[in-house]
Amino acid sequence: MIAYWGIGLLSLRQGDLPRALPCLERAVGICHAADLPAYFPEIAAALGAAYTLDRRVADAVPLLMQAMAQIMTAEIGRAWRFCHLSLGEAQLLAGRLDEARTLAERVLVLAHTHQARGHQAYAMRLLGEIAARCEPPEAEPAETHYRQALALAEALGMRPLQAHCQREPARAALAAAIDLYRAMDMTFWLPQAEAALAQVEER
Q1: DSSP tag of 54
Q2: 3-class secondary structure per residue, 80-127
Q3: Of the candidates 2, 111, 96, 93, which has an alpha carbon nearest to the alpha carbon of residue 48?
Q4: How far is CA 30 from CA 26, 33, 42, in A?
Q5: CA–CA dist 101, 170 (Å, integer)
Q6: pTM
Q7: Residue 11 exposure: Cα atoms within 13 Å on the Cβ side
């Protein structure tokens, strides 16, 4: 189970969904079959994130809600933060911005309090995404959150998050994101960044 989880999580970070999904689904299946509830929330959070990336919100949200309901540890726990971030991403994709914002803000507060700087960076990036997708877009808060997330990601050496935070409509930022995606073989996001860069260069 741990091996499937590890391979699936690494593949998820690289955007390799064809590899991530079966590994994480297998890990969740083993967790259920072997009755290992202590492992379920964090593994389910990873699978929920993969479903979200695959735009399978109808699969992601119930799984993540189940994971959150089973968390027996304190709210400062890693699994709690991971589940909230994954569910926030799913709610964002579903267009439920208020729910996504609430989840991201909860994680940000507790991550800051308990020095969980990696989760803090992901929460700020999620808040940036939420602000950018508002109608009308909240441009200034979005930029502030992206910059804060990027600064933390750079300080912590979180290269995948650096690439995500640099996907803004500016040539230099997009070029930097493309370089990082290529260096890490993160092929899922590469075409999107290249297409965005092409649009910028046509202006």
Answers
A1: T
A2: HHHHHHHHHHHHHHCCCHHHHHHHHHHHHHHHHHCCCHHHHHHHHHHH
A3: 93
A4: 6, 5, 14
A5: 25
A6: 0.78
A7: 19
On whether the CB atoms of residues 53 and 91 are closer than 8 A, the answer is no
Hey, what amino acid is at 116? A
Q: How far is CA 62 from CA 16, 32, 86, 90, 189, in A?
A: 23, 16, 12, 10, 26
- In the structure encoding, which two tokens stand for residue 74, read together? 């304190």
User: What are the per-10-residue average pLDDT scores of the chain (203 residues)?
Assistant: 92 92 96 89 94 95 91 68 93 95 94 90 93 82 88 91 67 70 85 75 54
What is the assigned CATH class of domain 1-88? mainly alpha
Residue type, 170: A
Pair of tokens at residue 78: 């890693």
Q: Which two tokens stand for residue 89?
A: 């991403």
DSSP string covering 34-53, please? TT-TTTHHHHHHHHHHHHHH
Query: How many whole angstroms separate alpha carbon 98 and alpha carbon 13?
Result: 26
CA atoms of 47 and 63, how far apart (whole Å): 8
